């Protein structure tokens, strides 16, 4: 199994498609999930370097997944980005409380997200 | 007081005359045997109660004195002085007892007033408390509403941002990468297009919901053919259902009445429900049906989908309350469809709900009121029975609890050429006048006074007259039981005095029969203060028996239930002796000048039960007044 760099989890397929398109074009290995439970399973199995988690997802919300990952010592260095939709105080608080490393508010620019990934992983 | 002096003076003159004749005629004169009976009879003619007492006491006590010790001419002057002193003493006692009697009534009236005042105060207090509760309730509701509104806005913003972020991402990708293959380019453009359509649909749905919430829909209801609705819904959804391999069945083929509503909005509700059914059903059948139930047409859409959890069956009608994802590939909607449907249905005066069994499917129901049927009278016009000139006539609304009475009166009125409407209670009458304005309302004395007062208020505002009567029609006995008069609560003592005086009720006791102790007691105090003797009954049959025996000066009948009231009135009328007793009905409502009670003429005490024919005459008179 190839090393996975990035996992994207969102229940909106268009968002997943757009982000994976940009990352894959720059040569990153990307895996996707459409709900929280699958995302957690994939993260634990594939140990990616960056994870994008939508806050509102079926089966398990983004901040719950994030908390579970951050509790595991082996996975604490995975960089977790939360995608929030409303950009409201409550969402930010939830992201910060769950131990997320950063967050992006929808609608976002794919270019800026790519730049963020590049800065973290190095091209 | 003048009368008292005048009568005392007369009494003394008579006394002096008799004593003088005694003196001249001597003790053996036969006059002495006439003396006492004459005095007794004479005192009966005095109107004053004090003189009655004095006269009687004097007449009884003095003969004892006189007979044991007959007067002689030389003792006459001292005897005369003794008699006079005795007379004045009894007079004084009589007068005092009358005063005491009066004071007692005044005191009782004051107590009664005090009681009613304190009750009114209590009621005010309670009202105030209720108002306060209502206010805090309203405040709470407002706060909740505010919270709901904030949530709504945040939900709307969330729903807008999701497609917006897709649009932004894909347009940016297309702008930044030159070497994307045409197929991917097309895919991205299609996504942008699809998401923008989703946004605009959502925006119009939000506007619908806001408009429904503010009640500013501004649509006019008209009769809509139910079958047309069902067929239109079926036509729109059939292609979608066929595409998914679902069967769509229109179950109802029978004749359904028209519903009252706005056609496009009703189609929107039906299509929304059918659309959901198709979306959430993988295989099976969608059934569309309708039936008539209690003045509503109940339309149902049932599917063979997964079913809805019991706790979600109410929530799904709230905005943005999407069903929790049970399977992964659940279709997505805006989450507004059902709440818009709910808004539309409720705006039409109907209800919407769901019944569901997990794993077997769900059935959504909604009801729409049946369009008002044409009035009965107009059917007669179509049959050519009526003079076309009468076409502009407004109908007469007959309100009686008893069906036989109502039918009989309506039949008679329609024979004369009127359109009629019927209702069994004031509440039902108010429902009818909401859709059709009558020219006159004929109503019997009601049982539900609050509804009656509301009807009276409506009539005053609408300028429609009300004829108040006691219609009592049995087979072969077509009479309207008119009474002599009505007294409405709260009692007006001047009105009651005037009423009794117009019937020259004096001296005889006045009978009150009432199921309500407060009402009868207040009336008793008022009558007592006016010097009337009162007989009080709470039981109808007992009062009727007593009325037949004692033949009172007047009879006040309290706020009985309809059947008891009729029993009392017919009972009293059935006897030739009590049949002439002036009868007054107590009304638990204030009347106004638009209400005319049917009464018997006060000329003399002669009373006859009005025949239905005479009642029709009064109705015609009142109806023509309403036309002026």
Give a short summary of the structure.
The complex is a heterodimer of chains A (123) and B (628). Chain A is an alpha/beta fold. Helix content of chain A is 45%, strand content 19%.
Structural summary, described in words:
Chain A is an alpha/beta fold and 123 residues long. Helix content of chain A is 45%, strand content 19%. Chain A has five helices and five strands. Chain A has helices spanning 13-25, 36-46, 62-71, 89-97, 110-121; strands at residues 6-9, 30-33, 50-54, 79-84, 102-105. Chain A has a five-stranded parallel β-sheet with strand order 2-1-3-4-5, sandwiched between helices. Chain B is α/β, with parallel strands linked by helices and 628 residues long. In chain B, helix 4 (76-176) packs antiparallel against helix 14 (517-529). Chain B is elongated, with a radius of gyration of 41 Å. Chain B starts with a helix and ends with a helix. The chains are: A alpha/beta (123), B alpha/beta (628). The A-B interface holds A 12, 14-15, 17-19, 21-22, 25, 34-35, 58-59, 85-86, 88, 106-111 and B 154, 157-158, 161-162, 164-170, 172-173, 176-177, 184, 191, 195, 324-325, 328.
């Amino acid at each position: 199994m190839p090393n996975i760099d990035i996992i994207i989890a969102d229940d909106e397929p268009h968002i997943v498609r757009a982000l994976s398109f940009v990352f894959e074009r720059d040569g990153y290995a990307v895996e996707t999930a459409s709900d929280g439970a699958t995302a957690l399973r994939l993260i634990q199995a594939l140990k990616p370097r960056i994870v994008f988690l939508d806050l509102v997802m079926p089966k398990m919300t983004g901040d719950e997944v994030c908390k579970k990952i951050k509790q595991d010592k082996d996975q604490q260095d995975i960089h977790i980005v939360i995608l929030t939709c409303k950009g409201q105080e409550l969402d930010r608080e939830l992201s910060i409380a769950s131990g997320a490393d950063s967050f992006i508010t929808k609608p976002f620019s794919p270019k800026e997200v790519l730049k963020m990934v590049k800065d973290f992983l190095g091209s | 007081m003048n009368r008292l002096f005048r009568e005392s003076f007369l009494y003394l003159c008579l006394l002096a005359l008799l004593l003088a004749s005694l003196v001249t005629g001597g003790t053996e004169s036969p006059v002495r045997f006439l003396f006492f009976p004459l005095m007794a009879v004479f005192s009966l003619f005095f109107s004053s109660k004090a003189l009655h007492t004095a006269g009687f006491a004097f007449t009884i006590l003095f003969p004892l004195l006189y007979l044991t010790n007959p007067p002689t001419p030389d003792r006459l002057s001292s005897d005369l002085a003794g008699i006079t002193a005795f007379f004045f003493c009894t007079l004084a006692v009589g007068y005092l007892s009358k005063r005491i009697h009066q004071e007692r009534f005044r005191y009782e009236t004051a107590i009664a007033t005090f009681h009613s005042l304190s009750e009114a105060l209590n009621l005010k207090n309670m009202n105030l408390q209720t108002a306060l509760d209502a206010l805090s309730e309203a405040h709470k509701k407002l706060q909740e509403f505010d919270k709901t509104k904030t949530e709504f806005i945040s939900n709307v913003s969330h729903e807008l941002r999701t497609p917006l972020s897709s649009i932004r991402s894909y347009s940016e990708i297309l702008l930044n990468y030159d070497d994307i293959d045409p197929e991917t380019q097309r895919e991205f453009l299609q996504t942008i297009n699809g998401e923008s359509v989703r946004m605009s649909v959502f925006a119009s749905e939000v506007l619908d919901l806001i408009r429904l919430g503010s009640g500013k829909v501004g649509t006019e209801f008209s009769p809509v053919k139910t079958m047309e609705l069902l067929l239109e819904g079926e036509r729109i959804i059939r292609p979608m259902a066929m595409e998914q391999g679902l069967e769509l069945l229109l179950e109802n083929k029978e004749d359904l009445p028209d519903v009252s509503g706005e056609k496009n909005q009703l189609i929107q509700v039906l299509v929304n429900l059918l659309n959901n059914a198709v979306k959430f059903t993988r295989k099976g059948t969608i059934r569309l049906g309708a039936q008539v139930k209690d003045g509503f047409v109940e339309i149902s859409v049932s599917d063979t989908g997964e079913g809805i959890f019991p706790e979600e069956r109410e929530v799904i009608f709230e905005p943005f309350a999407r069903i929790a994802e049970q399977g992964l590939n659940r279709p997505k909607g805006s989450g507004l469809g059902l709440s818009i449907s709910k808004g539309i249905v409720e705006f039409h005066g109907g209800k919407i709900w769901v019944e569901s069994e997990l794993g077997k499917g769900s059935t959504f129901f909604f009801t729409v009121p049946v369009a008002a049927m044409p009035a009965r009278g107009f059917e007669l016009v179509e049959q050519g029975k009526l003079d076309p000139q009468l076409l502009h006539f407004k109908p007469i609304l007959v309100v009686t609890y008893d069906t036989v009475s109502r039918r009989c009166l309506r039949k008679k009125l329609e024979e004369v050429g009127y359109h009629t409407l019927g209702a069994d209670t004031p509440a039902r009458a108010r429902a009818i006048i909401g859709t059709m304005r009558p020219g006159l309302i004929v109503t019997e004395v009601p049982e539900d006074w609050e509804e009656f007062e509301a009807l009276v208020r409506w009539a005053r505002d609408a300028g429609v007259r009300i004829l108040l009567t006691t219609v009592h029609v049995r087979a072969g006995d077509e009479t309207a039981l008119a009474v002599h008069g009505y007294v409405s609560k709260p009692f007006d003592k001047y009105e009651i005095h005037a009423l009794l005086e117009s019937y020259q009720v004096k001296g005889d006791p006045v009978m009150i029969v009432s199921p309500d102790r407060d009402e009868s007691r207040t009336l008793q105090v008022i009558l007592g203060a006016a010097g009337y003797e009162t007989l009080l009954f709470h039981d109808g049959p007992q009062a009727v028996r007593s009325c037949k025996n004692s033949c009172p000066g007047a009879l006040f009948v309290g706020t009985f239930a309809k059947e008891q009231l009729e029993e009392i009135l017919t009972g009293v009328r059935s006897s030739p002796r009590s049949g002439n007793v002036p009868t007054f009905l107590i009304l638990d409502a204030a009347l106004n000048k638009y209400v005319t009670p049917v009464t018997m003429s006060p000329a003399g005490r002669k009373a006859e039960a009005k025949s239905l024919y005479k009642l029709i005459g009064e109705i015609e008179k009142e109806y023509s007044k309403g036309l002026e």
